[in-house]
From TrEMBL:
Family: Belongs to the ABC transporter superfamily. Ycf16 family.
Protein name as annotated: Fe-S cluster assembly ATPase SufC
Domain of life where this protein originates: Bacteria
Pfam families per UniProt: ABC_tran
Record flagged with keyword ATP-binding: yes
Every ABC transporter domain range: 4-249
Name of encoding gene: sufC
Keyword entries, A-Z: ATP-binding, Nucleotide-binding
InterPro entries linked: AAA+_ATPase, ABC_transporter-like_ATP-bd, FeS-cluster_ATPase_SufC, P-loop_NTPase
Keyword ATP-binding carried by entry: yes
Species of origin: Citricoccus muralis
Amino acid sequence: MSTLEIKDLHVSIETENGAKEILKGVSLTVNSGETHAIMGPNGSGKSTLAASIAGHPRYEVTSGSITLDGEDVLEMGPDERAQAGLFLAMQYPVEIPGVTMTNFLRTAKTAIDGEAPSLRHWTKDVKTAMEQLRIDPAFAARNVNEGFSGGEKKRVEILQLELFKPKIAILDETDSGLDVDALRVVSEGVNRAQDTNGMGTLLITHYTRILRYIKPDFVHVFVDGHVADSGGPELADKLEEEGYVAYEKAAASA
Ligand code: ADP
Ligand code: MG
Ligand code: MG
């Protein structure tokens, strides 16, 4: 049982006109096995939250805390966060010339676990996960992210999720740019990781579409850098019908 706890998190970025506060006191607790959907309008700070949990150097935490099972995440470098059991989907967005997917995945798995996976199991696990995600076997020999389409990158993200077995995953707009078939395949992968590893999930999304495939236990409305409302899955249905307007008005007049 693991717990990611975010308490009264304030985050700023440096702009031409000085520091700008983007996150204005975010509190959230994600336990193993739980799926929390974070939903909000564009520009509300959702990706800033994901980047702050990932330890992106651009985002300065000015106050508040992030802990995983009581350990101070903010004290950890990005690699240590992965070793501690956090999965941050934006971690490997770059092309890495000359490094094949197979070698990359094995190196990353070794770094995360602190020991190399047994070759026999590893080869089988990679093959099975790739088949389930309907990733072309030829991908294994290709260089990391080189010429991958948006949809292929998303599948590879979920491939990592299944192989690295994180305690808590933060998925930012995993549904963007996916057609319905790809969305289903990717969602099945997330659900498998939840069912087999008890993974907790912070699912950040602008649209309710992905919530038809990945059922949230909790839904949080994110507006103007903070959680404006929280509820169960029914809150997503309400947002689908009514949008964020009422929340944005309330935030503007606050
Ligand atoms: P969301 O993911 O909800 O669309 P973001 O976290 O991307 O929101 O952005 C929140 C706010 O922070 C926006 O007003 C955006 O313009 C601003 N912002 C985020 N990152 C940067 C950046 N690197 N430089 C300038 N402004 C930024
Ligand atoms: Mg679930
Ligand atoms: Mg975003």
